[in-house]
Predict the 3D structure of the following.
Amino acid sequence: MKTRIALLLLATLLLPGEIIDRIAITIGSRVIPESEIFQAIRLAAFIDGREPDFSLASKRKAAETVISQVLLIQEMDETRFTVPSMADVIAQWNELIKPRYPTDEAYQAELAKRRITDEEVRLYLQSMIRAVEFIDLRFTRGQQVSSDEIAAYYSKEFREYWQKTNPGKPVPPLEEVSPDIEEWILGAKTDTASEEWLQQTRARSRIRYREEVFQ
Amino acid sequence: MAEIRFDPQIQPLPAEELKRLIGIEINEPLTAVAVRRAIQRLYGTGRYEELQVDAILRDGNVILTFFTKQNWFLSRITVEGAAEPPNREQLIAATKLELGAQYTEEGMAEAMAGLREILQANGFYSPRIQPLVERYPAFDELHVQFLIRPGDRAYFARPVITGNMKIPEHSILNTSHWKRLWGVLGWQQFSEQRMLQGIERIRRSFLRKDFLLARVELNKLEYIPEENRVRPHLHMESGPKVSVVATGTKLSRGRLKELIPVFQEQSVDQDLLEEGSRKITHYFQARGYFDAEVSYDRSQISPEEERIEFDIDRGDRYKVAHVEIKGNRYFDALTLRERMNVVPAGWLVNRYGRYSEELLESDKRAIAELYRSNGFRDVKVNAAVQRNFQGKHRQVSVEVDVEEGEQMFVSSLEISGVDLRLYETVRSMLTSTDGQPYSPFGVATDRDNILNFYYNNGYPDASMDVQATAAPGNERMMDLKYVVQEGRRLFVKDVQVNGLSSTRTSLVDNRISLFPGLPLSLSRMVFSQRRLYDLGIFAKVDMALQNPLGSVREKRVLFQMEEASRYSLNGGIGAEFGRIGGSSTSLSAPAGGASFAPRVSLGLSRLNFMGLGHTVGLQTRLSTLQKRGVITYLAPQFQGRENISLTFTGLYDDSRNVRTFSSRRFEGAAQFGQRFTRAFQTQYRITVRRVSNRDVLIDPKLILPASQPARIGLVSTTLIHDKRDDPLNATRGLYNSVDVSLATKALASETGFGRILARNSSYHRITRDLVLSRNTTLGWIKRYGGNEIPISELFYAGGAVSHRGFPENQAGPRDLLTGFPNGGNGLLFNQTELRIPFIGENLGGVIFHDAGNVYSRFRNISFRPRQKNDEDFDYMVHAVGIGVRYKTPIGPIRVDFGFGLNSPRFVGYRGSLQELFEQAALPGGIPEDRRVRQRVSAFQFHFSLGQAF
């Protein structure tokens, strides 16, 4: 009997366990476990209303997004950027999520199917709102769009774009589309500035990938 | 959850800590979120490099295994074996490894690459670098040592020079100093510094030849392995010659270079020329040419030459006759004037005053800032300049008008986020409290005080936000809210010191005021580092925390020391000149003749003797007046106490600094010094010396007793109270000292006497530039038993530091036969000096009055200005004079010219000492024709270093 127990114990010890989580990426003293990347894939897919993709390529892409989020959150925390209130989160939830599900039961069932919780969804939304507001404050405000830039865009790109998308229709005058062009240029400038910041911050941060997680 | 296991079983954190960090309870359901958080918390401690969690399901229960790989931390980084340059500091910096940080393979690879790069930059192209890693598992730390075999340093090869440089290549090469002895000995060894210096020299040589736009660029460095040489490839473009001239008024070339930025920038554009014009205008305005106008013209003389002409119309020179400040109520005019650069004309310095539009604007800003920092948010400062002041052409007045506005006050101050136990302490350090003036400056001061308090009490992440809002219904009152985020609190786990080879550990431990269990204080860390540097035995003291970013609250503090070289050698040559001349046998110049005494000194010190931080030194001096050797043993922080020092001294001195005799001393002394406060200190001393005098130029009847060797044992104490702002060149404060000595039989002294010497000096700043200083010295010697006091132990004074109406040591009683000074038992001097600036910051002057004398007895001290007869020396001698001071880092160099108003007359002897002996033995005594009536010269000059007092 004793021998059987000992063999059983030995067999248990030798059984290979399932990896349930491990370090995937480190950014300085901050760690991103593999499970956090999977969770990011699930949440993003849920918000976008699509099925999660756990392929290696998708995993790598999600990892890059999580890194950007971590760096952005670090910056927001360091500058004490305010956290949006739950009322704002609920408003966003009502706008984005609620219309998709006729009943709360349907919503809960979808969450359970996707292995995420309502709290995680709300925190994800809160983090999104905060990031958008931060980018607006940090990278959009202070950007200026001159009338020359609007005119240049109108003559070089807008005309061509209009003629392609609205063949035969007359190109609207500059005065009419000027606010839209201004907003578009502003958006492009914001993207450029935030991308530059992110690249510089990534270069400064000690980011270390555990390649075995992505193979 | 059934069980949590660790692989390996031995973990860098204690079991309890691990349990707390993992936070997964046995018999509770296991969630992915719980595992993720456990990984994040464990990694956050900084103790793990890798973490993986595996699960095995058995009978519906989970066995969780944490596979871990621990981190190692760098506790010592050393580099050995490389020849300078680069020096050890540069090599360690090149590794980019940080003390206390995590050790990683990537970091080591970067370190090796960094070392190779810096070695290559210094001519070592094939170095061998062997990294040695020594692990100390008990502390999770490791020492990294890089052993370098640098190989042979490369030499310069003839550079490849391209471009259009208009200067011959051989001239450029000579300028670079890359050749040894102009090429006779080949090329210099290559180093980064030598290469950069060479390029800079070439660049400057272009500038000297007016090629202001010259470009000298290093394109590449070509290494020639067969020859072990490095060939710089340089590209040079001299550009056109640009001559910069000033017309209209004279301005030296040096001044032009200083004022016009094209010389520094090596570029010519409109902005730089405009800036040059502005600077020239400001330069002349500040010198009284308020209407100065400067214009410039840039012209192309030929394709190869440009000319930039600054036309200066400096106009009339004005005098700032009056500066007035109006409207100020909160601050007095003196306080505001201290902040102003515009100053009215003075009678000696700033004879035209100081004014320019730029200076006035800066003064307005400074005054406004002062008001704002005291709660006057709406202050306005205006200024008006009035010409033809008091009807006089070329005279201006400047009127500064201050509109103070309402002062703001703090209505209420609310502090949140502070631990209640610290609340009262934090509150007590604030200035912007209820009812106090409100200003951003005050708030910033509060923030600094609070954060410093937290940093020094173990809260390195503390931060603070301030909210300031106008109080409802009263715009003059502000409601303040300080929101403190204390953050984590860190404690000292232990302290580790590395790098000691000859220094005793206890010496270092005593200087480190960080103890296990106490909050980690930033100021204590810096204080400990300063105390270690104060020992004077360390070239470098590096300090770091192990695992600084990890969330573990107890931190190990690391000190990495580098011991300084233990031997230091110093030498110097110099000379004394003054009225110190006259031979030791001639009696012809009792008051001294102008002479020159060259001097050589040599010293050797052994620092950190026996690893105790003590210093043993030998200092020697040799001159025609003195032979001196001193051996010193100094324990500067005796028994680890910073305020106590112990010194043992052995001295041999053979000197003739008093013209009357040559004195030889063998002396041993022990001194115990104690500093009670920054200003107050005492010294206790025991001195035993054997004194013998020879070549004594006094009455032959007295020579024998005066020449007898004597042993003197003294016990003495000195009290010093020093509140001067700068001991080398005091401008305010006071200095008091009392030295009391007793020669006693208890110390085998053959004579018994007491001696007191007291000094009191004070320094007063009359205006910003004028300093009135005074000094009084009083001395008393009284014999109470034993043999006569040897002649060399009496008071001798006069000269550069005591009375500038006398040559060195020529004050006081004189031998009635020879006229040579023979010392006194009493001494009183009073010196008064007005210190004034002359030119610029460095050259100043003094006007002085010195009074006093050395007296035959203390009771004979007299203020009487007249000398009764040629045998009376107990009267007060007065001297007035002027002096010049040139400020240097080691104190002012000074020259003083004194004029004695009532310098002493006396009778001396014409002839040699031999003749005196012969004639003294004659029945008729000394013939009258040999007795010469003379006087200490009324004109004296003194050249010295340091102020007189």
